Amino acid sequence: MLCEQLPHGRKGEKTRTLAVILLCLSVMILAGVAPAHAVRLKDIASFSGMRNNDLVGYGLVVGLSGTGDGTTSEFTIRSLTNMLEKMGVSVTASSLKPKNTAAVMVTAKMPSSTRPGSTIDVTVSSMGDAKSLLGGVLLLTPLRGLDGRVYAIAQGSMTVGGFSAGGQAATAQMNITTVARIPNGAIIEREVPFQFNKQDNLTINLSGTPDFGTAMQVVRRINGAVGGPYAKAMDASTIQMDIPAKFQNNLVPLMASLENLDVSPDSRARVIVDEKTGTVVMGGNVRLTKVAVAHGNLQIVVSETPQVSQPNPFSQGQTTTTPQTNLKVTVQNNRLMLMEGASLQELVDGLNSVGATPRDLISILRSLKTAGSLHADLEVI
């Protein structure tokens, strides 16, 4: 053997290398290997207390280059009049020309973990007949929650991801110019009255299609990570977890370990068909039992090409029109093919072998579902 031919020193080095490899394999087995096609728990679930709160406000954008609201937007003129009167400027509504001003709605999402003084992004959307918000500045706008209380104040220069230009005969536009964003454009003034660390238990909501197998897999992964039966599944998409004593009033380390757990989500086999675009999407669990499929098209084209018949000179005949019909028949006579797909790849290969286009796949899949050979939920959108 090769080992017998090696010097004693090299034999010892090889033995030590083999021992290290075996030790590494043992550690990997004891630590557990991540499931195949695994994703992090944070990517498929949400945790109680970690949510966004929607804020909305009404404001004015000024500084536009003649692309603001016209005189028909009465609410813009009224808002501009009220704002100037609060600043001590007396004006009449008839004297205002708001072509450089636009009335807008300001929206933002406020995470529950934000505190007074932090900033969030805001989106500004035109309400009137403004043509563009490019170059505008949002004036001080209070943002309110569902309870009517002010949680943030927004103000600043806006960024528009497009442009609009034109004349009397032609115009050019890229993207939407009546919606803009202000990065870090709102300052939080009031926090949400919620203490994350004071929770006695956590609720984990699985996103997507509810599945009992996925829920139990998450329960096993959580209990294995925290070392005890702290989590239990309430239904196919909700998991309730008691907080271990060592993490009481200190949930951040627990959340950091839970959200990075590897899980292989499972779901029912499903085929999604979009008839408007001819798109067919099939999940990896789609199965097809033995079935015979024949696919072919019959195309008949009928065209009329009338011919004009002219009489011979001095024959005293009349010019007449002679009908002529061209008939063309095209038949795609594809053979009857036997398909038995135990996997998605075999199903796709079988359908491609009969020359099915995406539009034809829709009819074939419907027929397979009616025949009871397609074992998946067929959903048409």
Note down, in words, how this protein is organized:
- Helices cover 24% and strands 34% of the residues.
- Strand 12 and strand 13 form a beta hairpin.
- The strands form 9 sheets. It has a 6-stranded antiparallel beta barrel.
- It has 3 domains: 127 residues, no CATH class; 69 residues, Ribosomal Protein S8, Chain: A, domain 1 (2-Layer Sandwich), CATH 3.30.1370; 91 residues, no CATH class.
- The two termini are 66 Å apart.
- It is α+β, with helices and mostly antiparallel strands and 381 residues long.
- It contains 8 helices and 25 strands.
Mean pLDDT: 79
Helix residue percentage: 10-25%
User: What low-confidence regions span 5 or more consecutive residues with pLDDT below 50?
Assistant: 1-10, 24-35
Distance between the termini: 66 Å
Q: Give the helix tally.
A: 8
How many DSSP-defined strands? 25
Strand content: 25-35%
Task: Please give the domain count.
Answer: 3
Strand arrangement within the widest β-sheet reads 3-4-5-10-7-6
| Form type | flat
Oligomeric form: single chain
Main sheet, how many strands, which sense, barrel?
A: 6 strands, antiparallel, barrel
Radius of gyration computed on alpha carbons: 35 Å
Structural class: alpha+beta
